[in-house]
Specification:
This protein is α/β, with parallel strands linked by helices. The protein has three domains: 197 residues, NAD(P)-binding Rossmann-like Domain (Rossmann fold); 83 residues, N-(1-d-carboxylethyl)-l-norvaline Dehydrogenase, domain 2; 136 residues, 3-Layer(aba) Sandwich (Rossmann fold), CATH 3.40.50.720. Helices cover 43% and strands 14% of the residues. The protein contains 17 helices and 14 strands. It has a six-stranded parallel β-sheet, with helices on both faces. Strand 1, helix 1 and strand 2 form a beta-alpha-beta unit. It is globular and about 70 Å long. The mean pLDDT is 96.
C-alpha cells in the first residue's frame, strides 16, 4: 500500500515512520526543501524519543522516503494524509486552515486513480467537506474520497501512542475508503485496538472534545490547588482521592504552572470559536482557558513571594523550559509567560533544559543566559525554579545544589520533591497546592 504524508513535521513524520513500520510504502512531502534534505541525510530536526531510530530503520529498508515534489508522490498514492499545522489564527482564536487548504490545492492536480484523502491534522468541524469541494474544483475528474483520522499523539510518547493506541477514530462515508483505511491499520488488530468508525463531522469533533476535556482536568486541579493552599490541604492527596474513583481516573490531575504545548491551548480556543460560530457558548471551556492563564500569573506571584516580594537583582536558576518533559517543544510553554515577567521585574535568569534550549533562545528575552550544564546554571543562584519535571531534575543531589547556590530558595512548580525533605535539606521550599 502506498501512503503519502503531506507535511513532514511532528505528526507527519511520526505517523509516516509508524505506517512504514506497519509495512506500508510511505513518502513524506514537505515544501521546506531544507527539512527534506536533512531527513534524507538522516538528520532529525525534532526531538521525540525513539523517532530517529525508527526513521533510520525504515529509510534504510526503503519503506520511508522524503521529497518536496507532489508530482513524484501523489499519482501512485492509495492514501494521502494531510498532516500540516493548524495554529491559532491571530485575532479570533480559530484554527488557521490556510496550510491545509494550500496543501489540498497543491496535491489535487496530481491525483491519479482512486485515492483517499485523509485529514490527520486537527481541524474544525466541516473541514473535510471543504477539502472535498476544493479537490473537485481543482480536479473535476479525480476519483477520490475524503476521510478524517485525527491523531492522538502525546509528545514524548508518540511512537508508543501510535503503536498501542487507546483507539483509532475514522470519519468516513465511503465503503471503499473505509476498506483502505482499515487495511492500513490492520496490524493493530493483533492487539485488539478499538477502531471507531463514524461520520466526518463526529470524527473531527472527537479530537477537540478529547483535548478540551483533558485541559479541563488540568485547570480543575490547578484551581483546587489554590484552595488547598488556603485551607492547609494537600492537593496531591486530594487528586489521589479523586483519581481512585473509576469515573474520574487519576490521569491529568497533576497541579503545575498551567498547560501548554501544540494542542491544548489552540484546540480549546478553536472549540470556543466553533461554538460561537454556531451561536452557542462553551462556558466550561472558556473557564478552562481563563483558569490556565490565571495559573501562570499565580506562579509569578508565588515566585515573587518566595523572594520576599522583590526580584530586583536576584539570580534565578530555571530548570526546564519546555511545556513538558521528553520534548523540545516550546509552544505555549508556561516559561514563555513567566520568565519575561520575572525579567521585567528585575530578575536575572540562568536557564537549563535537556532538549529545549535551542528553541527557547529564539522565544525568550535575549537577557536570559543559557547553560548546557545544569550545575553551572545553579552556581551562585539566589533561587531555583523547577519549571519542567525532566528526569534529570528528579533525583538531584540536594546537598550539592545548596552548596552551589548563593541563596536557599527552591520553588518547585511541578511538586517533584517532598516539602519535609526539602526543608530538612535546608531549603526555603515553595510548591503548588500543599
Amino acid at each position: 500500500m502506498n501512503v503519502t504524508m503531506v507535511g513532514a513535521g511532528y505528526v507527519g513524520l511520526v505517523s509516516g515512520a509508524c505506517f512504514a513500520e506497519f509495512g506500508a510504502s510511505v513518502t513524506c512531502i514537505d515544501t521546506d526543501s531544507e527539512k527534506i534534505n536533512k531527513l534524507n541525510r538522516g538528520e532529525m530536526f525534532i526531538y521525540e524519543p525513539g523517532l530517529d531510530d525508527l526513521v533510520a530503520s525504515n529509510f534504510k529498508q526503503s519503506r520511508l522516503q522524503f521529497t518536496d515534489s507532489y508530482q513524484d508522490a501523489i499519482p501512485d498514492s492509495d492514501l494521502v494524509f494531510i498532516a500540516v499545522g493548524t495554529p491559532s489564527r491571530r485575532g479570533d482564536g480559530h484554527a488557521d486552515l490556510s496550510y491545509v487548504y494550500e496543501a489540498v490545492k497543491d496535491l489535487a492536480p496530481y491525483l491519479s486513480g482512486y485515492t483517499v484523502i485523509v485529514n490527520k491534522s486537527t481541524v474544525p468541524v466541516g473541514t473535510a467537506r471543504n477539502v472535498w469541494r476544493i479537490i473537485r474544483e481543482v480536479n473535476s475528474g479525480a476519483d477520490f474520497d475524503v476521510a478524517s483520522n485525527p491523531e492522538f499523539l502525546r509528545e514524548g510518547a508518540a511512537i508508543s501512542d501510535f503503536m498501542h493506541p487507546d483507539r483509532v477514530v475514522v470519519g468516513v462515508e465511503s465503503g471503499r475508503a473505509k476498506t483502505l483505511i482499515q487495511r492500513l491499520y490492520r496490524p493493530l488488530n493483533l492487539i485488539e485496538t478499538p477502531v471507531l468508525i463514524t461520520n466526518l463531522e463526529t470524527a473531527e469533533l472527537i479530537k477537540y472534545a478529547s483535548n478540551a476535556f483533558l485541559a479541563t482536568k488540568i485547570s480543575f486541579i490547578n484551581e483546587i490547588s489554590v484552595l488547598c493552599e488556603a485551607v492547609n490541604a494537600d492537593v496531591h492527596v486530594v487528586a489521589k482521592g479523586m483519581g481512585l474513583d473509576g469515573r474520574i481516573g487519576r490521569k491529568f490531575l497533576h497541579p503545575g504552572p498551567g498547560y501548554g504545548g501544540s494542542c491544548f491551548p489552540k484546540d480549546t480556543r478553536a472549540l470556543v470559536r466553533m461554538a460561537q460560530e454556531n451561536n452557542l457558548t462553551s462556558r466550561i471551556v472558556e473557564s478552562v482557558i481563563e483558569v490556565n492563564e490565571a495559573q501562570k500569573t499565580r506562579m509569578i506571584s508565588k515566585i515573587r513571594t518566595a523572594l520576599e516580594g522583590n526580584e530586583i537583582g536576584k539570580t534565578i536558576a530555571v530548570l526546564g523550559l519546555t511545556y513538558k518533559p521528553e520534548t523540545d517543544d516550546m509552544r505555549d510553554a508556561p516559561s514563555l509567560s513567566i520568565l519575561p515577567k520575572l525579567i521585567e521585574n528585575g530578575a536575572r535568569i540562568h536557564a537549563h533544559d535537556p532538549k529545549g534550549m535551542a528553541e527557547a533562545k529564539a522565544l525568550l528575552p535575549e537577557t536570559v543566559i543559557f547553560f548546557n550544564d545544569m550545575h553551572e546554571a545553579l552556581a551562585g543562584a539566589d533561587a531555583v525554579v523547577l519549571m519542567t519535571e525532566w528526569n534529570a531534575y528528579r533525583g538531584m543531589d540536594l546537598e550539592e545544589i545548596k552548596k552551589q547556590m548563593h541563596g536557599n530558595v527552591f520553588i518547585d512548580l511541578r511538586n517533584v520533591y517532598e516539602p519535609e525533605l526539602m526543608r530538612e535539606a535546608g531549603f526555603d521550599y515553595f510548591c503548588v497546592g500543599r
